[in-house]
Amino acid sequence: MADAPEDPATRIDTLRAQLNRHARAYYELDAPEIPDADYDRLLRELADLEDANPELATDDSPTRRVGGATNTAFAPVTHTVPMMSLHNAFDIDELRGWNERVERRLEGQPVPAYAVELKFDGLAISLRYENGVLVQGATRGDGKVGEDVTHNVRTIADIPSHLTGDYPPVLEARGEVYMRLSSFAALNERQVEAAKATGKEPKLYINPRNTAAGSLRQVDAGVTADRELSFFCYQLGVVEGGPELTSHTQTLEWLGSLGLPVNEHTKAIASIDEVEGRIAEFQKKRHELDYEFDGVVTKVNDLRLQRELGADAKAPRWAIAYKLPPEERTTTLLDIEVSIGPSGQATPFARLDPVFVGGVTVGTATLHNQDQVAAKDVRPGDTVIVRRAGDVIPEVVGPVLSDRPADSVPWEFPTDCPVCGERLVRDEGAAATHCVNFRCDRQIRGRIEHFAGRAAMDIEFLGEKNVDRFVTLGLVEDVADLYTMDFDKVLELEGFKEKSVENLRTAIEISKSRPLGNLLFGLRIPEIGQVNGQTLAAAFGSMDHIMAASVEEIAAVDGFGMVIAEAVHAWFSRPEAQDLIGRLTAAGLTMEAAIVDRSAPQTLEGKTVVVSGTLAGFTRDGAKEAIVARGGKSPGSVSKKTLALVIGADPGASKVTKAEEAGVPVLDESGFLELLESGEVPEV
Description:
Distance between the termini: 72 Å
CATH superfamily of the largest domain: DNA ligase/mRNA capping enzyme
Number of domains: 6
Structural class: alpha+beta
CATH class of the largest domain: Alpha Beta
C-alpha cells in the first residue's frame, strides 16, 4: 500500500525548514549544499502550495524573503532603497506569461522596449559614493539590511575609489561582485603550488560564485585582494542630483561615463520575440565568456513604466530572470559500477536516478578513477550533485552530506575485472586501474571497434552491434580474424543477406590498402594516436623496421621522447603483438609506408598546417597529403605553432575556437590553395 501524501500544512513546514537551512548555507556561510536549480524547485513547490492554500501563507515565508540574514562579523547597513530579488521564468511560456501580466497592468498598452542583460553568478553589492568618493560597500543581506564590507570592496580593481565625469552629490550603484573563470583557475593553481611546498593535499575551491562570496566576507582585506574579484554595475539605488534619466539602458550608459564597469552585452530590444532570440543567442555563448552567468534578465526599459508597474513584497514587476537550463542538479546515486575500456582501463561510474541537467536527461555520470571516488567519498544511496556543462561528459561533483543515510558505508573499488574476472592491476604511481588480460572480452570488442573506425582502417558496415555479435559467437577474437572470417556463417545470422555480407566482405578487403600510419593507430598501441601513427610510419618506412627499432631509435623520432618510445617498444615486444602483426602481414595489409612525392615545391617545409572539415577539391586525406608533399606537417590539433587552420564544410568547432584564441589564421579552400603555392598565409 502506497504511503499517504503529506497534507499541505505538513509539506509547507517541511519545505520552509529545508529552504531556511539551504538559504543560510548559501547566503551566510557561502557553502551551499545543493545547486541553485534544486533550491528553485523547492521554492516553486512552496509557492504553489501557498497559492493553493492562502490561509497557510506567512509574511516570513522564504517565498517572500530576499536573500538571507546578515553576518554578525560585519556592521549592519540599512538600505534606504531596498535591494530586491527577481522573479524567475524557467521556460518561454513563463516569460510570455510575465509579459502578458505587464501589459495588463499597463492597461493593454504594449511595452515599447525591453532591456536584456545577463544574470551574473556572484554576490549582489551596493556601492555608495558621496561627492564622487566611495564611502561604503554593502552586501544585499535580506534586502533591507546588509553587511558593511567597505574595506574589502576597496581592494576590487574594477570598483573606482573616485568617480569621473559629472557625478551627483550622492550615488548608490548596485551590481554584482563575481570571479572571472581565469582568476578562479589561477587561484586553484596557486593552491596546488602552495600544497607542494608542504607536501599536503591542496585545498581547492569548488566554484567561482562561492569563492567570490566568501572572499568578500573576509575580515582580512588582503585575502580579498589576493582573490582578484571583479564587478559589474546594473542598477541605481539612492541618487541625489544627477541627470533626468528615462530608460534603463540610458542609466547604464551614464554609470559607465562615471567610471563604473557595466557589461557590454546589455541591449535594448523592441519585442518579446526578439527577447527570445537574445536568450537563445546567449544560451549558445554560455561557455564562451570568462565569467559564469545562469540566466538572462529582461527589464521594461522605460523608467516611467517601471515606476508605474511597481513591485511586490520580493521583486519588481517590471523585470524577470529567465533561468538557463541548470548545469548542476541533485539526484540519488543508485550504485557505483566499473566499466572496462578498450585498453583495459577500469573506470568507475555512477548509476543515477535519471535527472534533467545541462539540457538532457542524465542516468549515468563519470567518477574518473579510484582516487576521485575516495576523495569525493560518494556512496550508493547518497544524494549527489551532478554537473553537465555544455557537451562535457556528466560528472558527480560530490555528496549532500546532510542527506546521507545513517547506515552508509564507503564504497570500495573491486579487485577483479567485472567482465573477465581476472585481477585488476594498478601500477605504482598511476591513477588508473587496468585489467591486463589481453583476452578480456570487453578489450577484444574495444580493439576491433577502434580498428574499424574511420580514423583508423575505416571499415564500413562493421558497427558496434556487429562487432558484439561476431565476438559473442566466436567468429572473431582479434582484429586479424576479420581477414579470415567465415562469411558463410555470417550469412546465417539474422539480418544478413547476400548483399549485406558482400558489402562487409568488400569493406574489409578495401581496408587492407589503408596506409601504414592508419594501421599503427588502429592497433591501439600505447601513446600512438593518429598523428604519431603517421609520424612513426614516415620515420621508419615499414612495420619490420619499427619492430626491430631500439627504444633509443624510437625516442629519436621528432616529437616522441623516452616515455612514448618505451611504451611503443614494450608493446611490440609482447609475443601476442608479434603474432598479431604476423597474421596481418599474411592477410595482405599494407606494411610499408607510402613514398612521399617530394617533386612538388617545398613551400611548407618545417611548417604546420591543420585541416578540419571537408574540402571540395580534395579527398579526406588529400589535403594532408598535399601539405606533407610540400614538406609540411598536418597534425590533428591546433597549437600556437600552427601556421594556419584550413576549414571546409562542417569543421570542428573546438579547432576553430582554439585557432581564434591562439591567433592562428583561419583559411578557406581558396586561401589554402594560395598557401600551398606560396608557402605564405594570404591576407584574410
